[in-house]
């Protein structure tokens, strides 16, 4: 940018004026003197007297350029390393649908904890808790058979499109965390819960009887 400025400023200078600039190292910067040398050279002037200065300046500029490129590369690599490892939006939505709003909220809360969004963790967990309890209360009070799948889909979109965007940002860069561990944990929780229900219902011998007893308990 400075060289472009000096080129414009010196374009009407005479040979003698350019030489005066080159030799006055107390008044003019190295950039200014170098530009004057290049302009004098382009006009066919003899610049051999200042070749050492010209070479030294060009070498210094080349080193600075390489250093800046290396620094930029290191910063870019550091930014990549600093990307969060998070559970994806799709995984959170799938967990809401297949398991429960609470499961999806747990994954999103984990993401927010990793990203340092502690306030978001509390909001997400409270939302999931009241959402599930609200659905149960509405079903009991109004005697309606609300679809759990429908409610889970709605909650999944609220978590991924509202709470995620609000606290993590819609364009946050992250590396996808494996789905295997949370899936195994969720399955264990579901099987344990089903086992407790099975025991509480008197250990029915087949699934059909189990479901009938479960419906009777709901009634």
Structure report:
The chain is mainly alpha-helical. It folds into three domains: 2-81, no CATH class; 84-177; 180-219. It has ten helices and two strands; from the N terminus they run ααααβααααβαα. It has helices at residues 2-10, 15-23, 30-42, 51-81, 89-98, 101-114, 118-142, 148-167, 180-200, 207-218; strands at 84-86, 174-176. A two-stranded parallel ribbon has the order 1-2. The longest helix is centred in the first third of the chain and has 31 residues, at 51-81. The chain starts with a helix and ends with a helix. The chain crosses the membrane at residues 91-112, 124-142, 148-164, 184-201. Keywords: Membrane, Transmembrane, Transmembrane helix.
* Morphology: rod-shaped
- Mean pLDDT reading: 84
Order of helices and strands: HHHHEHHHHEHH
Based on CA atoms alone, the radius of gyration comes out at: 35 Å
Largest sheet: 2 strands, parallel
Question: How far apart are the termini?
Answer: 80 Å
Report strand order across the widest sheet.
1-2
Number of helices: 10
Share in β-strands: under 5%
Helix percent reads over 70%
Number of strands: 2
As for the number of domains, it is 3
Low confidence ranges:
none
Which structural class matches the secondary elements? mainly alpha
Transmembrane segments: 91-112, 124-142, 148-164, 184-201
Keywords: Membrane, Transmembrane, Transmembrane helix
């Amino acid at each position: 940018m400075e060289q472009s400025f000096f080129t414009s400023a010196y374009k009407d200078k005479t040979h003698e004026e350019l030489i005066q600039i080159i030799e006055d190292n107390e008044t003019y910067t190295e950039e200014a003197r170098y530009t004057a040398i290049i302009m004098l050279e382009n006009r066919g002037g003899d610049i051999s007297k200042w070749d050492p200065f010209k070479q030294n300046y060009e070498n210094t500029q080349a080193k600075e350029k390489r250093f800046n490129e290396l620094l930029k590369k290191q910063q870019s690599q550091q930014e990549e390393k600093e990307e969060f490892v998070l559970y994806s939006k799709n995984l959170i939505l799938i967990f809401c649908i297949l398991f429960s709003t609470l499961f999806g909220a747990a994954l999103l809360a984990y993401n927010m904890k990793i990203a340092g969004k502690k306030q978001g963790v509390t909001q997400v967990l409270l939302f999931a808790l009241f959402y599930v309890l609200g659905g149960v209360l509405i079903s009991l009070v109004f005697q309606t058979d609300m679809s759990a799948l429908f409610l889970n889909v709605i909650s999944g979109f609220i978590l991924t499109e509202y709470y995620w965007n609000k606290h993590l940002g819609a364009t946050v860069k992250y590396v996808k965390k494996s789905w295997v561990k949370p899936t195994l944990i969720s399955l264990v929780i579901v099987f344990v819960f089903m086992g407790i229900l099975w025991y509480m219902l008197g250990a029915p011998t087949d699934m059909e009887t189990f479901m009938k007893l479960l419906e009777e308990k709901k009634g």
